[in-house]
Specification:
81% of the residues lie in helices and 0% in strands.
Length: 67
């Protein structure tokens, strides 16, 4: 998998999430899947995407606690 393809898919996820806020959790799940695929193939994980994943995780966990 080319890194550029990953970036393109993640950009698409975020564009969709901006337009459909209720799908933001799906974006996080897709990001998890993309990073897991990179890890499974032995490719290095982009540090900025790992931080983004952690931030999104934290945000969704805090939303669940507030409900």
């Amino acid at each position: 998998m080319a890194f550029d393809d990953l970036i393109t898919r993640i950009n698409l996820f975020f564009s969709q999430a901006e337009n459909e806020a209720e799908d933001a959790h799906q974006v996080l799940e897709q990001l998890h899947a993309e990073l897991a695929q990179l890890k499974a193939t032995g490719q290095p994980l982009p540090a900025d995407l790992v931080r983004l994943e952690a931030l999104l995780d934290q945000e969704f966990k805090s939303r669940v606690v507030r409900k």
